[in-house]
Amino acid sequence: MSRNLIELTRRHHEGAAPTALALLKTAVEDHGKITADDIRDAAAASGLPEATVYGVTTFYDDLKGPRGARHVRACSGTACFAATAGTHIERLGAGLGVGLGEVAADGSVSFGEAVCLGFCHSSPAFIDGTTVLAGPHALESLLAGRPSAAGEPDWISLLSEPVLTRTGDWSGLARALHELQPEQLLAEVEAADVRGRGGAGFPAGVKWRFTRAAPGAVKFIVANGDEGDPGSYIDKYLMERNPNLLLEGLALAGYAVGAAHGYILVRSEYPLSKPVLERAIRQAHADGWLGSDIRGSGFDFDIAVVEGAGSYVVGEETALLACLQGLRGTVSARPPFPAERGVQGMPTVVNNVETLANIPFIARRGAQAYHDLSPGSKSAGSKLVCFNERFNRPTVYEVPFGMTMRQLCEEVAGGIRDGHTVKALQIGGPLGGILPAGLLETAFDFEPLAAEGCMVGHGSIVAFDETTDMRALTVHLLEFGAHESCGKCFPCRIGLRRAHEMFSTGAPVDRQRFEELLETLELGSLCAHGSGMPAPLRSLLRHFPGELGLAG
Amino acid sequence: MQLTVDGLQVQVADGATVLDAARQAGAWVPTLCFDERQAPFGACRACMVAVDGTPKPVPACTTLCREGMVIDTNDPASRRVARTVVELVLSELPSAPAPHTELAQVAARLGVSGSRWSGAVHPVDHDLRHPYLAFQHELCISCGRCVRACDEVQGAFALTAVGRGFEANVAAGIGSGFLESSCVSCGACADTCPTDAITERLLLDGSINGGPPPEAPRLRERR
User: Fold this and answer.
1) How far apart are CA B167 and CA B165, in angstroms?
2) In A120-155, which positions are buried (b, 16+ CB within 10 angstroms) versus exposed (e)?
3) Where are the beta strands (DSSP E) in B33-175?
């Protein structure tokens, strides 16, 4: 990230200037496209150079225009692919009579894709303006001009004492402020071995320790609510059903680290999340849980919510920080780590939403109680998992670590619907490996899944039934990979495009050359997007080689 | 601090990168996005090297040295990555880079003579309206050196990265070209460009204001 640009944003932030990205989003929503004048205005108001703002306009999906008076998008996520093999996208385009990325001649409607709307329990999903429709009849009602918002199933906890699905009540912060010094809270979080729930599994306590130790007059806590993983709707549920738990987790992190400001970056594909969180923040201020001198403790903390603009890689922490400051959401090489130079160049903790939602329990009950939540596992705490529409009872479940994938799929989610069978599962998001039906005895836990080339990741479980064409799945995954590459590092920028081309043309794929490419992606990429994409591809090569159309 | 590069002991200052150490030891590490006048960027991934015998190579330009580190610049996996990266880069250009360019020289030294990859290439797009600078966008490999030169060295902020994924490129101003940008004609972008996507035009080369594409006339030879 350019130090000069960060300094420019810091200075303008002091004057409460909006970010360039926020201004550009407003322009698109207002008149369907971004004009040269919009760019100049956004540059003047945000304090960024015009060229920099132009660069921002070309990065995010949401800023691509032109748009019609009505903007309709089909979900291109993996759960929707598993449900329809992608046919719902073509059917929407045909029904609207508009090509993908185009506007009707009379400007009445435009048609696009959204990379996962988080309605994976009811695929296929569509979004008409800000109304999400989902389910087998969604397309018909949308085309008939009767869009009605889809419902979402309740979440369920398998724990006798729910942690993440228990409504946040600020009791963890209350205890911490009265009974724990910041250093004691930090030690408790370290002892709890909280591993990041966003995908990488990095210990939260280590990030906190670095940030606390880093010199800086101002520090920040950032909640990563950019749950871009197709097939996941865990953070969506947390943000929309349990916002106080997240706010409390942020405040606790601020208390432990010595930060007075928090941010939540939510993805724009979840139009309900930001208003729910903002309402909860207002209520928390009114109740004295946020603001200055919280409950007479001398601790100050406030939280602002920022919405993304359509980019998967913004879920990577350095790209997230760039997006938060209104810049292009590209990845930066580390060091410097956010713990040293994050928001406004100051020490910053970036934790996933679910990670932060674990903290109130630890503050209230301590590290040992947290370890005891998963008695059959080395991993501490509980985990939210979610299932796609192929299952009989798809929703978000709170589970202990260590159950087998078969238990989760059959006993918890009720098996596959309509007499179909599981062909394979993709676990943990688009960068997670693919587990064939023959390996369902594998335990849902960090090490056992890693041994099969898979991961806990963010906890989504997407089933593909026996009708799934594995080459089509490969094309689907690579289309996502190439579309979402931020364009910074060369292996990912060019390599994922070439990999997609190898499979999408229908020609036999030179296996040796493909594997050379996978090695370069894995070893050479700057972030987990490029280095993680090979995991599901290697699973497919290993378990379904006969279905991929390989040569050599 | 003391460390080893390809079996040679070297002494480096605190804060030195693995690339600094390798260069101090006289070892060649291929780079495309690196310019010693700019902060390391870590984009091209050609500079991978092995450290301490671990199987996962690291980028030399953005990895800091540690006391006692053992660096191997000839690690086979690292070199495979570098060659594949260069081959991929060559595959995105509609024509081979001119032999004097840094890209062509790195490719030659790695023994990469062409690309086995077919597929999309960057569309030909020339900005030839500026009196001193020409931009051939199809030769841009998004190394970011010009953008950083304009930001970190000149402070003119006339350039930006644009697009994402394979469509990534660089633009001047609000996409309208150098002439309508905040460019001050310093030439730092052309000076650092490893592919001649941006070149300086001689005042009197007869190709000003919409003339034919420049035959890359240069004010001075690149090292």
Assistant:
1) 5
2) bbbbbbbbbeeebbbbeebbeebbeeebeebebeeb
3) 48-51, 58-59, 70-72, 126-127, 133-136, 159-162, 169-172
SS (H, E, C) A490-517: HHHHHHHHHHHHHHHCCCCEEHHHHHHH
- Separate counts of helices (H) and strands (E) for chain B: 5, 10
For residues B50 and B65, give the distance between their C-alpha atoms in angstroms, rounded to a whole number.
12
Nearest CA of chain A to the CA of B202: how many Å? 26
Do B131 and B68 belong to one domain?
no
Starting at the earlier edge strand, list the strands of the sheet with B198-200.
Answer: B126-127, B133-136, B198-200
* CA-angle at A543, arms to A541 and A547, nearest 5°: 70
Q: Which domains does chain A have, with CATH numbers?
A: 3-58 (no CATH), 70-143 (3.40.30.10), 156-371 (3.40.50.11540), 382-465 (3.10.20.600), 470-551 (1.20.1440.230)
Indicate if the pLDDT at residue A376 is higher than 90: no
Quote ipTM for the complex. 0.94
pLDDT mean over A36-60:
96
B208 within some domain: no
Condensed to tens digits (0 to 9), the pLDDT of residues A498-542 reads: 999 999 998 999 999 999 999 999 999 999 999 999 999 999 999
Q: What does the DSSP assignment read for A363-378?
A: HHH-HHHHHTTSTTSS
Domain that holds residue B136: 126-200
- Is this prediction's pTM over 0.80? yes
According to DSSP, residue B153 is labeled I
How confident is the model at residue B203, as a pLDDT?
A: 52
Determine phi and psi for A149, rounding to 5 degrees.
-60, 135
Give a yes or no: residue B120 inside a domain.
no
Distance from CA of A331 to the nearest CA of B (A): 9
Does B86 reside within a domain?
A: no
| Sheet with A348-352, edge to edge strand ranges | A302-307, A261-266, A220-225, A348-352
Boundary residue ending a domain (B51, B79, B107) = B79
* Distance spanning both ends of chain A, measured CA to CA: 42
Count structural domains, chain B: 2
pLDDT of residue B56: 93
* pLDDT tens string A285-325: 999 999 999 999 999 999 999 999 999 999 999 999 999 99
Nearest to A521 by CA among A483, A494, A500: A494
Please tell me if residue B138 touches chain A, with a CB cutoff of 8 Å: no
**What's B25's domain CATH number?**
3.10.20.740
Contact between chains at A523 and B88 (C-beta distance less than 8 A): no
Q: Find, among A246, A238, A235, A262, the residue nearest to A172 by Cα.
A: A246
CATH of the domain at B130: 3.30.70.20
* A–B CB contacts, 8 A cutoff, strictly below: 163
| Positive or negative torsion for Cα A374, A379, A380, A381 | negative
Which residues between 64 and 103 in chain B have a beta carbon less than 8 angstroms from any beta carbon of chain A?
64, 77-78, 80-81, 84-85, 88-89, 91-92
- Taking an 8 Å cut-off on Cβ atoms, the answer to whether B165 and A525 are in contact is no
Q: Could B167 and A519 be called an inter-chain contact, meaning their C-beta atoms sit closer than 8 Å?
A: no
Backbone phi, psi, residue A350, to 5°: -115, 115
B168 located within any domain: yes
* Chain B interface test: which of A311, A488, A531 (most B C-beta within 10 Å): A488
Shortest Cα–Cα distance, A482 to chain B (Å): 6
Instruction: Return d(Cα A128, Cα A381) in angstroms, integer.
Output: 38
- Using left for φ > 0, alpha for ψ between -120 and 50, and beta otherwise, residue A401 falls in beta
Supply B52's token pair: 């301490």
Pull the structure tokens for residue A449: 């899944």
